[in-house]
Amino acid sequence: MIPKISVIIPVYNAEKTLHRCIDSILAQTFSDFEVLLIDDGSKDKSGEICDEYATKYKRIKAFHCQNGGPSKARNIGLTQSRGGYILFIDSDDLLEPNALQLYAEVIKKDYPDIIKTGYEVDDNSNGSRRIYSVPQKMILTNSTDIFMITEKYGYAGFLWDTAYKRELINDLRFCESLKWLEDHLFSFDAFARCQKMICIPEVTYHYMTNQGESLSNIKDAKAIYQAANIEYEKKMILAKGNEEALQLNIASYNSKLSMSIHTLYRYYNYSSRHNFWKHNQNIHSILPTDRAVRIFYSKAPFILKDAFIVCYLKMKRSKSALKSFVKLLFYKH
Length: 333
What we know:
- By secondary structure, the protein is of the alpha/beta class.
- The protein is 47% helix and 18% strand.
- It has 13 helices and ten strands.
- Strands 1, 2, 3, 4, 5, 6, 7, 8, 9 and 10 form a ten-stranded mixed β-sheet that branches.
- The protein is globular, with a radius of gyration of 22 Å.
């Protein structure tokens, strides 16, 4: 029989958290589901763990591929899955026991294109918890409302608090050439197709942070820049001229431009920064709010603005750096 829900989990070097993740799915109060574990060329024992679960439980399937990133793994999962609705889960996170039951109840009653639920961010370093949720059940039937509500309540383009109807996804796939924000971009494409989204306040997902290396700790300025520009264009389609939505998009774009430039000056040398400037000068016609970004994209000669940004960022980081800079300028050794 075709399962009602397919749960797709890309797996890469997750041996420390994978058992916990899978066990949280097996503990569900709802049983009509399948789990697809996509081992993305793991170098630890993750692949063996996937096979162990697949051997023990009929509803779990394990697939192995050469390392190509989470987008490739999710695309394999989409091709191999059979459920009427699809969930994506990260291998270091976990579900509440009634998560799939809640999705199933919404599916039975409303049969929407997309279901969004509340989620909790658990910080492993200090034990703090933050919940993101709508105040009540919401039914959204146009792309602008979908964009506004998901931005307002912190749902954004996250995959893991979402169930997608298979017919909605159809031929939609993740962009495997992108190294960052590919999950959001997939979601925004799905939002553009969506005729009916249901948001419910119940928390179903625990997003675990500070558990070691994370994709959120990206050090690739070009990847951030590239994703920011694509995201801006997709959000413009969703905004449809709504002024508040446009301002939200501009604020988000400014934030990511700032992240790109600050990453550039934190991890790249002068030659790499100059090369980045030569090949990544096209930004959308907005006024950047970050001073370093404004300077970087100004018309001044690169060597001058680069020196200014380096000094400016050092001054911002510490008063001692400011004193050192003043001494360097005005005092002879």
